[in-house]
Amino acid sequence: MKNSKYKITIGLEVHAHLKTQTKLFCRCPNRTGAEPNTLICPVCTGQPGTLPVAGEESVLQAVRAALALNCKINKYSVFERKQYFYPDLPKNYQISQYKLPLAENGYIEAGGVKIKIDRVHMEEDAGKLVHRKSETLIDYNRGGAPLIEIVSAPEITSPEQASEYLKKLRQILVYSSVSDCDMEKGSMRCDANLSLNLKESSRLGVKTEVKNMNSFKAVENALSYEARRQEELLLEGKKIDQETRLWDENNNRTAGMRSKEEAHDYRYFPDPDLPPLVVQETVVEEIRKSLPELPASKIERYMGEMGIGEYDARVLCQEKEGAEFFENAYSKLEDKKKGVKKLSSWINTELKGKMNTEGMDFKNIQLDPGSLAELVNLIQSGKISGKMAKDIFEIMWNEKKCPQEIVEKRGLSQISGEDKIEGLCRRAIEENPGLAEKYLTGKEGTIGPLVGFVMKETRGQANPSMVNKKLRQILDGKK
Amino acid sequence: MSNIKTLRKSILSGRTTAVSAVEESLKKIKSESDLNCWINIYEKESLEKASEIDEKIKKGENPGKLGGIPIAIKDNMLVKGMKTTNASAMLKDYVSPYTATVVEKLSSEGAVIIGKTNMDEFAMGSSGETSAFGVTRNPVDTERSPGGSSSGSAAAVAAGHVPASLGSDTGGSIRQPAAFCGIVGMKPTYGVVSRYGISPFASSLDQAGPLAATVEDTAAILEVIAGYDRMDSTSIKREVPCYAENIEGSIEGVKIGIPSEYMQEGTETAVRERVLAAAGILEKLGAEIKEISLPLTKYAVSVYYIIAPAEASANLARLDGIKYGLSADSGKDFLSDVTASRTEGFGSEVKRRIMLGTYVLSSGYYEDYYIKAQKARTLIKNEFSEAFKIVDLIFAPTSPTTAFGLGEKTGDILKMYLSDVFTISANLAGIPALNLPVGLDSKNLPVGAQFMGNYLSEELIFRVARALEKEIKSSEKQ
Amino acid sequence: MDKKTIEKIMHLARIELTDDEKQEIPSQMEKIINYIDNLNTLDTSGVLKGEAVFLKEMMLQPDRVETFPDIGLLTENAPSFSEGFFKVKKVL
ipTM exceeding 0.90? Predict the structure, then answer.
């Protein structure tokens, strides 16, 4: 869309499943993976006479999420009934929030831009439908699970930015331990509204709603497709129908849902079974204080206090567990100022590379952050070379041993004794007269192969910078 | 059948047994089945429970505040393992998977649930005529309506089948049938009695309460069923007063207002006369009677017939034939099956109210009807608050008429709806109200008057009603 | 109240009317709506919000699982239940 005369406007509605023990309005377990219809009770199957009673943890989790998204919490919010007949909805209405949501006016920084969040509200999940050839099966286990819906302002200007926003949103919610936000497992779901309008115009065009996107990639692909589709229609002078379209992953396209006979009329009204939800200022402040440091502030701190570059800081903060690993290791560095860069590059390159090839993540690695710090300490103090460190790291990873122990057991300590180095260098010059000659005639590049010779002879145990220095010293003396 | 207090004494002293009290009740029920006030009778279960109670008494254990007392409950209250039909074809085979809190509370105090009483379908009606199980008859005059919607609960007590019953009151459904049948019935403050396990009609108006022959028995039952329930978000957390114990006492200086709007031509002369006569007695007992005005009364029916159907339309949406209830095969798709089930399952009155409720909530009408009605409701609430700054209680007719004939109003729905005009306001405001029989009209039909009080003023209501009841009864004896 | 409105309501409410009801209900509704319109003579402009009568704030429940012991009673009432699922005709 780079050279298009249209600009894209996207708004995202994200549903995230809250982590709690119980469902939103009953005390059934809030979990997945059970046999169908075994996590149910009279309330979440809509038996006559049952009443919703909100769970405290759901409310606190929702407040936590809203605060992490920089929202203002409404002291009073109201649950309403959203009415439509569908078999996954046992009461044929969903308890949600409409006019007075839990929280409003937040934002996320994504790709250097602040994207406004209009509202965060709470609602109950529907059951799960399994479609067979001739019948539909209903499992109410998920019915009544606590959700938050996060509605962005229509301020997102590209599919890439949408994906960036989602990643950021996910990162924040996971950091705050509010949700797992696993799109594949359905604990995070995203619907998008997309419209095009002429670049010079400020009036938004007709939007379509895109659903059924089950990964970040799918969101990006679906929205790119939808933007192109709308652009083509507009260029042909055709009109865009306001409709809901489903992303078809296999065929890489969106398709309109069979048009409904009439527009939805949800007949929202305040649920008379539930008094207004009151969230006291003291509760909000308590949660605000208990919020973990979020990525944005961590990155700032890493760059400021620790002097890490922006890129490295961002990579370190991608996951909460990763940042925790780093901070833990950092606290054990002997020389923090000098060691921090090495540490961050070790985490971001060596460790993450290893984790990638082994399919592990920070949640399940066995490596102790303290031993990685120790490894960096050994490098910093010159006791081992970078090359040796890599070998030691391999052993650390495989045998779960601490580096000091490995170094001692295998006699891997770096050769840095002045006399020993000097002897090695003299031997190198003697055995490579050609290289030494060339150096003396001004081709100083030959110092490299000479250092290499020493390193090879010592199986990498010599301190390369000391070797370099010593070789020059000897040769320069011969000039 | 004797009242609770007497019966309890007899059972405890061994002059009679719980089993024989239940047997007497069952015999009466069977001999008067033409009243059609029952939908289900728990013969076996109630006899079992009664003999358990007798065992307890024999062993010297406490059988509970209502040990061995036969009690009827309206068929919108769930009893686990038993049917709860709501007097609807939709739920004629529905077996309750759990027990309502009010029923739990009755049972744990030793009450014997004799069975479920007939009612207007889903508690929608003012005459007992909308039941899918047939019309309930008024024991005072079987050609007349017992009132509704707790028609069976009122008729069963009036006929002496049981000393007390539970009903539910959304717009007068306890008080109006109590008035028509000549018994006592109370709708407590909204939130005093748990709604958990009672099929809702209109959630913000519904409140369950007792019907009994005397004020004291009514108080005794309320004492048992009231109290905070964590299963109901609207239930009030507060210690339950000893209503029955504190019932006797002077009413000297109690200020009682009679709203002029309830005493105009629309109200039958005999009803007005009996209410005024009762007011005279109250005055004699030391109460201060004042005329007051509640000008918003004329809007109550409108507000009610917006809010109640709106809530009901959503409450009844869950009846779709998927999880339970009547399921009809449309021969077409899933949604058509839902429509077919609802079309077959619901009677005309229920359909009418669902449609009305759907209409007032639908887009384009929501603001004009639903929001407007909610605002008017706030004004009505405020009007009562103002009135209770001047008086302690309000005393007024429960219904503009005495029991009307069966079939008399079914042809004119609006007329039927307007018969709730005096009872609706208490539900809209959420305040407690109690019907007390205050005499008979020229056709020997009972006239009912109601005391309305401020929030949580049940104790005062009981005390004043008890004082009046005593005077009326002693003057009847003379 | 025109036919289209009635039909829309019937559709939203998933209710159909019998022939008798078709004769009665729409006109009765009309009558009731006309009556209800007396509310227009009531000035509610000073009322900020209307709400149900709640004598309390929302009470919240602690996050402790309580499993319902009689799941069988929840499924036995279902007109069509097998293989652990409630069933309906295929939903498109």
Answer: yes
